[in-house]
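Bit of a strange request maybe. I'm writing a small parser for C-alpha cell strings and I need a real example to test against, not something I typed by hand. Could someone generate the C-alpha cells for this chain?
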Amino acid sequence: MSSTHLQEHLDPSDFAMIRDVLRAGGFRGVEATANSDAKKAASVFLKTEFRNGKRTRETLLLALQSKRVDLHKGLPVAISRKSEAIDRWQDEGGQ
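Reply from user aminoacidic:
Good idea to test on real output. This should exercise your parser:
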C-alpha cells in the first residue's frame, strides 16, 4: 500500500482555485464558449488532477490546456489518462 495519502476532500480555497482555472481556460463565466457538457467534463477533470497531486494554479491550467480540444469535442479524457498511466508504467520498467 502506498504511503502517499491523496486528499479526498477539497476545501473552499481549492474550489476557488479550480473555478479560477476553469475561468482562465474558458470553461467558466459569462464569456465561456464551451457548452455545458464540456464545462462539466473540465470541472471533473480538474478535480481529478487536483486529487492526483497537481495542486497549483499553473499545473492545473497546463493540464486543462493539454486536454482542451478533447474536452470541447466531448471526448472522454479518462481514457486518455489511463493510456498515459500505462505509458508511464511501461517507461518505468513495467511489463
